[in-house]
Amino acid sequence: MPRIPAKIIAALVSVAMLSLSAATPAHAAGPAYFEFTDTNGYPRFVFQLTDQAKIAHARRILSGEETQRIHVHGRILKRTVAYNPRWSYHLQPETIDFFEMAIEVCDSSMQYLEDHLDEAGGAFLPGGHWCPWSSRLVREVPVS
Question: Could you give the number of structural domains in the chain?
Fold first, then answer.
């Protein structure tokens, strides 16, 4: 039986490992849900994160380890989702991130956005980008 050189075996193993890691998405651990508030502590808004780095960032905010990029921003979608039934809109998970400072044109309270949802995406919150300056994470929502 012919012997396969060690370099070829190592290359085959490397290719196999790369294909396995490429087949497993970064968010394979599943989504996480977080709740934030705005100006006075109520109302509350729940959003979903699927990116593991952003989930870790949100958890660092809640633990107090992250003190700079602590406000939530992302693109709104004008429809209700099961995990955030109070509102007629939600944040598109893949667009969500955290910020320290943002321009005024994307700022709005939750209730004002709800009351003017038909105007969102035009002069009000251009492109549907929402960055509530007073957003403050309050908890991770347990998945049931």
Answer: 1
